[in-house]
């Protein structure tokens, strides 16, 4: 696997810039910037127009999820380019159904379906210097997972020390509602596919190598992705 830009400082992979968001000490946006800073997929019938979903349809798809442990608010879909709304598309590949393909160059994540189709989700991806490519697999999964800042980050940003024993799951937690952890050869790669509540991050390269989907999309993908699922990350 080619880990472009990965170095010995493993803490940088999940480093969070401590730039408050309103009254929050650690914001979702700051997680995306890093140290430099469920509903099922729609079928073709629901995405028949060339531009994909309408705004009204997207508002339904990305509406609130009140039944969650921490109720998830609706997405402000006006802040997301319509091309990144979830939809079913034709996608020719030799990978088996269920495989996840990350296309960082175009800010998409695909879940391969039957008959040459795929569910496509808009994503945020790693910024320059943190992108990587290759094959991995889902080694474990987490719902409202605890986030623990690495010691390297705490050394650079002492205000993160309060979470040295872990930041409990919740709406402010950088990992969000669901997390898929990428592994190779039995070892955690330090990369994840996670849930973001920052719609403006979709279609941008702002993370420290991880891949974020809107919470509603991430719940959809998570529910249909068992442990050991293959993940292919394409070159950017």
From TrEMBL:
Any GO BP: cell wall organization
Residue span(s) of domain L,D-TPase catalytic: 98-234
GO molecular function: glycosyltransferase activity; peptidoglycan L,D-transpeptidase activity
GO CC annotation terms, alphabetical: extracellular region
Keywords: Cell shape, Cell wall biogenesis/degradation, Glycosyltransferase, Hydrolase, Peptidoglycan synthesis, Transferase
Gene3D superfamilies documented for this protein: L,D-transpeptidase catalytic domain-like (2.40.440.10)
Protein name: L,D-transpeptidase
Organism of origin: Ancylobacter defluvii
Higher taxonomy: Bacteria, Pseudomonadati, Pseudomonadota, Alphaproteobacteria, Hyphomicrobiales
